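Dear colleague,

Thank you for sharing your sequence with our group. We've completed the structure prediction you requested, and as agreed, I am returning the results in plain text so they can be pasted directly into your records. Please verify that the sequence below matches your submission; if there's any discrepancy, let me know and we will rerun it promptly.
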Amino acid sequence: MASDTSSLEEYARRRDFGGTPEPRGEAPGRHAGELAFVIQKHDASHLHYDFRLELDGVLKSWAVPKGPCLDPSVKRLAIEVEDHPLEYAGFEGHIPEGHYGAGDVIVWDRGRWVPLGDPRQGLENGHLKFRLEGGKLHGSWNLIRTRMAGRKPQWFLVKGRDDEARDFPRHDILAEAPQSVLSGRTLPGEAAPPPKRAMPAKAPHKVAGAMPEHISPELATLLDAPPEGDWRYELKLDGYRILARVADGKVRLQTRNGHDWSERLPDICAGLRALPLRSAWLDGEILVVDEEGRPDFQRLQNAFDVGASDEVRYTLFDLLWLDGEDLRRQPVEKRRAALAALLQGNASDRLRYSEDFTDDPRSILDSACRLGLEGLIGKRAGSAYVERRSTDWIKLKCKRRQEFVIVGMTPPKGSRQHFGALLLGLHDDEGELRYAGKVGTGFDAATLKRVHASLRPLARKTCPLAAPPRGQAYRDVTWLRPEQLCEVAFAEITREGLVRQAVFHGLRSDKPAKAIVQERASPAAGVAGKAAKPAAKSPRKAARDDAKVAGVAITHPERVIDAASGLRKLDLARYYERAAECILPWLDDRPVSLLRAPDGVGGEVFFQRHASRNAMPGVEQLDPRLDPGHAPLLRIATARALAGAAQMGVVELHTWNARVDDLEHPDRFVLDLDPDPSLPWARMIEATRLTLAVLDELGLACFLKTSGGKGMHVLVPLERRHGWDEVKDFAHAITCHLARQMPDRFSAVAGPKNRVGRIFVDYLRNSRGASTVCAWSVRAREGLPVSVPVAERELDSLKGANAWTLGTIDERLALRGKDDPWAGWGDVRQRLTRKMWEQLGRSADDDGG
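Please find the predicted structure tokens below.
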């Protein structure tokens, strides 16, 4: 399907442009930026869907008679048709009778597509893999050419197995969302979405009108500018998202993680109970405002810390269910009108309605930014409520913008030329030039070349900063004389003085470099940005303000270690101090391997298994004879040692499967369920249950924890009777048994290629010296998730392996001693028997080969 200058001849030959409103598209267009896709719903001689992908200046096109389906097990026929011009992606209208394709056309979905591999090669080979990021369709997809005979090439359009997949016919995206994503209108005869279909006869226990027990929130997609179309805008609130379920006078306040906060917010519950309703699901945000009436996230956190819930307000913006009626398929305007009417008689000062605006979104955003607010949330008129991230809901954030001094360039990587990122500097209150982060986006090829030519003459051998940044990432930097300025847009400057989400906007030469300091907005200054904060201390002064945690001085406590959440080095150290009672029982009598991330998440990381010259406060060195030929192994046995590790840049704590008093006989083995990242979370839950079933058949008690990444960890305690090789071989036998019994679900071979569409049960962590992340350890990943013990009964409500993070873990910690899912570990007495080996189809005397 390669395109050339004549690729639109067939399109033009079939049409009389004197009578059809379709675009002429006389020549292929030019690609600029991201690749577009569009799906047009076409009521011609037969209703069908036209699926189009931008490539080589045209829209490659297929007619899909039954339309796309979100179920990976359903293959939808896609008949290849002629290329269409790029302008066709925005076409909606009526093609008159007597013309080719006569009938009505709407844009059912559109967005961008991302090829997975070389798209031209994929089309030539008959298997095109790609991702869609549209208003309705998301995630991985496939076009697979068939061998069916026909006048035109025939393909299958198939959804990939990922978190966006849904079962059919339970979820029918065509029936649920029939309207245009451009105009909101439907085809003639489809004036409104069809009523929700009754459940099939095979499930009579489902009662029509029964209110769901759980609803997941619709999430907004971040955009950098307001889109076209009919949108309603609300202020973006800086708080916690809460869905409220009200039934028979009982209120549950559900967080995004599925936790119930009703006991923490009794006044809000009372206000909801007083509303004139029998049952409802409501969506909103809890927040605390400052003296100027602006939401203040720090005050919200402080309110919970000191138990001052009377300051918390619940601002409501959606109504999903009311007195037996499911409103989720109703247009957002109708849902919000019903919510406004419901709140008219509200007497509680704890409940508020989120007003919307229909003015020019750019002026609304500008006003919000000038007031020190976070930004806007936009909702597409006519859109239904979906329980996932959607482009029907968007967020526009206030961006700040100012000049920075360019102090260095990092080397380019991959196909990029000239440089990777510019290192930035700002002068502090004392006139010292301090590191302010880096900017690596906002450049095209021409800009990279031009900027590099301007900066190259400024190269110098030494760093011009008063306190040079440390770490592997800065070893190959080309340092520059601090003379050239650039303008950068960014979301914020962290407390440590580093820019977040920076975008390059150009070089500047209209100010002296010495004059460049951090610009700080105040309520009267009219500068777009976040709410005004007290002037920050100079980095030099801040560096002196070390904090003490468990008796350990934490230097640079305000250093942000995860830009996505803004969490700091001090937050990590304080967590490990709070969690010591939970984590030390699984840590203090085992050798520990430490994952250090001195530059935070996204920077260089390395493992430390043995003692080094730089001792960590409180961390013990074990007898060198335990691991001959190496420096001593390490042990963390106190809260002070936990804080000392955090002080030295340690984020993750990994432990051996044996205790220090007998390192040759493990007291447990671990099965690490490692999935193909494209698999939906439901497949992980299924795999966990299947693994538990096998262990149950073997008569082995086991315990579960989230990995804090993508998978689950299953830990099996043992009496210390077996050597390392025997335990590892037994774990391998379980892996092979699962893969043999269910080859479509499990793989016994490591490596990404061997687990496509499957889950690798990793048994390799059971060798001498291998380790697994400890229960309650933080992970060095975006958001700083935590590996958390869970009970089997919690699996159905578990939202992911990263369900808890450093920012949300305290609620789980508070349950310690009340309902510990690992409380029975110490009572387990079990060993590996010949019968177990035989059940796995192996002999206890096998060598594992």
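Summary note from our side: The two ends are 48 Å apart (CA to CA).

Kind regards,
the structure core
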